[in-house]
Design brief:
Helix content is 50%, strand content 11%. By secondary structure, it is of the alpha/beta class. The relative contact order is 0.11.
Length: 331
């Protein structure tokens, strides 16, 4: 049994905390609000995200970050990607603890992946950092439906340790040493899911959505190769697996956000009506910048970013993508 701190009480943080508890670990979850921590501790429910799902009675919530991390062997970071740096600036990670990122995004302004933000901000060496990525729809994991994922670290020892503490009867983690590929797959699939959602919202069918998913995977792979990722990662759980789940499921925040855009709602209207963060809305601009800096063409990402910024409508986006010059499938 390991002592684990999960820093964040959103849907994915809660679901992963449940998995870690089911695996027999001593898990403490940090919640920003005292009311939510009390509900978790005394009613064993996260009323904000999973009001009908019972949490493990062993799962404890606290409101002080230092209390959550006291003595932790693993610190799981379950905050949105664009707030990770500011949170890390306020927290003190225990010496020797492995640091695990659940966030799927690219930082605005720097173009850094989350593992890079952790290393830079907290001064954590790469061999102590791991990421979790894959087809991980939080509600299904909280419901203990079967799911597989990837736990990636440049250190085989760290990846193996994280695999051991998160393996349950319903959650099967695989190890991988391609942190770059896993993080890029997790971040870019959110943007592709926005595009798929827009196509669905407009009323397009399966041919269109399958085309966007497939070409989105091609874009992600091109960027990954330029940054030194293993191309095989993108055909695995952290690539194709995550992409299919996020683009296909109504449980996906990014797919649902895109649908609402396709139906004519604005970014501001949708954002104001939901508690959860659609990471692709902010990451699309940073991924586009990252791609441009490496000379990688990512037309779907580019056009989604134009919709989010208000320069194109969803219908104009799809028209522009279909009107691009004809090319070989691989170029």
């Amino acid at each position: 049994m390991s002592k684990v701190a999960v820093m964040g009480s959103g849907s994915w943080g809660t679901a992963f905390a449940m998995t870690l508890s089911d695996a027999g670990n001593d898990v403490t979850m940090w919640a920003r609000r005292a009311e939510l921590a009390d509900k978790i501790n005394f009613e064993h429910r996260n009323v904000d995200y999973f009001p009908t799902i019972d949490l493990p009675r062993s799962l404890v919530a606290v409101t002080e970050p230092s209390e959550a991390m006291d003595g932790a062997e693993f610190v799981v970071l379950a905050v949105p990607s664009q707030s990770l740096r500011s949170n890390l600036g306020e927290w003190s990670i225990p010496d020797g603890a492995a640091v695990v990122s659940l966030a799927k995004g690219i930082e605005l302004g720097t173009g850094l992946r989350m593992s890079q933000v952790i290393a830079e901000t907290a001064g954590i060496s790469d061999d102590r950092i791991a990421v979790v990525s894959g087809p991980n729809l939080a509600r299904e994991i909280a419901e203990r439906q079967p799911s597989a994922s990837v736990v990636a670290s440049v250190s085989e020892r760290t990846a193996d340790a994280l695999q051991a503490i998160s393996h349950t009867a319903t959650f099967r983690p695989y190890t991988n040493n391609d942190v770059i590929g896993c993080e890029l797959g997790g971040a870019t699939k959110n943007v592709i899911a926005l595009a798929v959602g827009m196509a669905v919202g407009i009323g397009l069918g399966d041919n269109a959505t399958a085309s966007v998913i497939t070409r989105g995977l091609a874009e992600t792979t091109r960027l990954g190769l330029a940054l030194g990722a293993d191309p095989y990662t993108f055909s695995g759980l952290a690539g194709l697996g995550d992409l299919v789940a996020t683009c296909s499921s109504p449980l996906s925040r990014n797919r649902t956000f895109g649908e609402e855009l396709g139906k004519g709602r604005t970014v501001a209207e949708i954002t104001a009506s939901t508690r959860q963060v659609a990471e692709g809305v902010k990451s699309c601009a940073s991924i586009q910048t990252l791609a441009n800096s490496h000379g990688v063409e990512m037309p779907i990402v580019e056009h989604v970013a134009a919709v989010i910024s208000g320069d194109l409508s969803p219908k104009q986006m799809l028209t522009a993508l279909m009107s691009r010059s004809a090319k070989p499938e691989r170029y």
